[in-house]
Amino acid sequence: MEVTRTNFKDSLSTVYSAIEEADFLAIDGEFSGISDGPNVSALTNGLDTPEERYMKLKKHSMDFLLFQFGLCTFTYDQAESKYVIKTFNFYIFPKPFNRTSPDTKFICQSSSIDFLASQGFDFNKVFRHGIPYLNQEEEVQLREQYEERRSQSNGSGNPSYISPNSNKGPGSIPEEHREYIGRVVEKVESLFTTSEKTVDLEPCTGVIHAISKSVSYPDNLLSNCLVLICMLRCTILLDLLGAIPLGWDSTLSPLSPTQGKLVVGHNMLLDVMHTIHQFYCVLPEVQNTHHLYMNTVGFPSYDTAQEQLHEAGYDAFITGLCFISMANYLGTFLTPPRAHIPSQSKLIQPFVNKLFLMRIIDIPYLNISGPDLQPKRDHVLYVTFPKEWKTSDLYQLFSAFGNIQVSWIDDTSAFVSLSQTDQVQIAMNTSRYAESYRIQTYAEYVQGRQQVRESQGHSTQSWDEDGWVKPHYTSPSTVGAGPTGYSYGHNRYTPFTHTHRHTDTHTLRRARTHTHTLHSMDF
Amino acid sequence: MEVTRTNFKDSLSTVYSAIEEADFLAIDGEFSGISDGPNVSALTNGLDTPEERYMKLKKHSMDFLLFQFGLCTFTYDQAESKYVIKTFNFYIFPKPFNRTSPDTKFICQSSSIDFLASQGFDFNKVFRHGIPYLNQEEEVQLREQYEERRSQSNGSGNPSYISPNSNKGPGSIPEEHREYIGRVVEKVESLFTTSEKTVDLEPCTGVIHAISKSVSYPDNLLSNCLVLICMLRCTILLDLLGAIPLGWDSTLSPLSPTQGKLVVGHNMLLDVMHTIHQFYCVLPEVQNTHHLYMNTVGFPSYDTAQEQLHEAGYDAFITGLCFISMANYLGTFLTPPRAHIPSQSKLIQPFVNKLFLMRIIDIPYLNISGPDLQPKRDHVLYVTFPKEWKTSDLYQLFSAFGNIQVSWIDDTSAFVSLSQTDQVQIAMNTSRYAESYRIQTYAEYVQGRQQVRESQGHSTQSWDEDGWVKPHYTSPSTVGAGPTGYSYGHNRYTPFTHTHRHTDTHTLRRARTHTHTLHSMDF
Q: CA–CA separation, B93 vs B68, rounded Å?
């Protein structure tokens, strides 16, 4: 089903029902681009930490537009032993409401646009009929403008109750409405404390604030609403376009349907980040997404997508099919084997809340409900060198050490993974008198970065005002021994075999000079 | 006629012929946005100097994409006493050629996209079938990659003749081709020194460099090639996509057809800047476009466009019609009156090389073939104040002085134009003891800015390397008395009546406090 601004309001109850009856949901997004950095390789160093990857995506990927949001609901029919599937394609576009409403700018990356165009993606549908939306802050601003204009047209000299700091959130709820909103909040909260599945809300102006700010969400709820964040924020603008004061359709229960549902995606980190960034609020500065506790499963990228129709809803559908196959595959290990593994099964639990990290050698996922994996990297060297060096120079330098893996950081530095950890000390000794390059162990490198970070005060920053929990930054070198009780810190994973796409670029950009060879037999 | 990458090469000779036979050309561009600044008002202060306006557009408008280029050729048929019109719509998109070719990022502004969408603009045609192009620098880079890969596949250890600095331009012409290219340059230059209208060129790899770098253009030629800059750069990529070594269709004479033709546009400054920026090279840092000597006529914006099909070719067509009407209107002042004024008429000359400056109170155009107008602004005050102030605070402050015009600069400063110059001294005296605001005369303001600029070394910058002439920066306060012989400096123009669109925004953003009144009767 295609959902545009033409049929959005009429489709909402269908969408909500589909979500409510579903056993699990699959989502997928189509974006106007991936990276505004120099190239994708800058985004995907094979030895990124989950935090570094998150920060790179936040820095280089959030100015693109999520313009198609795919949702596929999967409901298991016990009698028929098959899944009933409903697919929705939401076309999204931040159509400005008027001259003073937010005029969003977004970046397009030619390669992404060209790829989608070659797949027959309908840009006209996005730009002509896309569903408009607001994030929290934009909504508050638009609401203020309305109120100011209304108070002016009422002949009142003072803007009624808008305080100068009203875009800070709850402060903008008018005094005279607070009691009413308190009652709404109470009703909404009853969804979590009672067995009620719906709540009747009277039409009101303040309920959005109540929903987005004042409700004390259970830990696992806000996060479950990923799909609804998108849909709700779209509804808000449509309401603003409609009538003031705003009213919710009181027969809908906008919060309940996704609660506790499994949401699956492929390469889902970007989808999650874009959904929050575009429809909800600014992403936090450091990777403290742990408190989101989203029920999500990440698994490696679906690679045949390029040969098929690249549409968000279709991709979500395929993703769901993959998930079903993988879940049922787990059932083959049971005694006796089970043909159908439901999405609520405990067999799925180890994969829940793990977001796949593309192209990281030894950390397969970002864990959003616990500490991240801390693989040993004591076979890794941090090498700095003149900007003329190419990958081949590094291969030559380490030619005596057998197979190595090079992960470029920038023009003058790279990680070099040796195949044997005991070669590290030899390499360190050899490099002591080198003039053109410098080698550090990975531990030394991490320590150096940590010192820089602390001197910049990063570890003390807090985003409490934005509603994000204060990050508990833990240095990679201390997590394993820390008080958290997790023992992920010192597992060693076998590096994946991996081809670095950026090698070509670097080869082309570097002159063929300055080669050095490090011979282990020198020692 | 619609020109996409599907029919581009086949259409070229038709386009060239149309240009060649034309008496004058009209052009127009459609862009993915106008301003990436906070709002349009930041781009259009009513008291901008031409240089300031140019710099603002360069800073805030060049990251958008020109994705439709309209060309309309007008050829006067003496026998029929009417113009023959040919319209072309070029769809443009920087489709990347491969993974290592430039992957252009461009910004879209929702309001612009929404406007074009509402006019039925076909984005799918742009993104699926747009003509690819390269600017000079991108072309050099792509060529290098080709050569490097070719030399690698030839088994050669060294990249043949690519020097490390080869993206600096002519340096990348291989030694063994220089003699050949010299002959090509000579042939091309003969176009300007002889009566030849075409030149036969053998297929060659280096001719692009010859055309873009080595030819000694007569002053008025490069500039006449605005339309062809666009078309040639598009052809180049199509050639790169086709075969290596590249070949020009030797029956074409790519430089001659626009020579000496009048090119007209509406609000043409942005069109010209985008065309040069996107298809040719980086715009210079300061307004030293004078050396371009483009034969262009600017006249005020075509305001009924919003009610009609917004397509670049159509807009160019309407622009041409307006020009014909205006030219013929000039003919009614002759004795005896003449019904048809040709585009080469001397009556048109005073309007040639003038680019309309939108929303500047007293400088109607940017003069690209001479010094700009320097209207007296001795009735203008530069006022700084707390950021809470609104337009109404300024009206109240100057309420004793009758009608004023307020031109916002930023949150804490604005120009205030008084209706009487002799009020300036009174206002200055009054403000002497003011604490919350400060007033300077316009002359004092200009002098202050000039000092800041000189301390930053702006006046000594040179862009010789890019092929731009070194700017001769002249301070506004000295031009009139300078050695140039121009006497534009001290004309006083009656300000246009003008509504500032940004007033609303400022009103909404400011609290209603801190009002002061300046009474002239106090003195």
A: 9
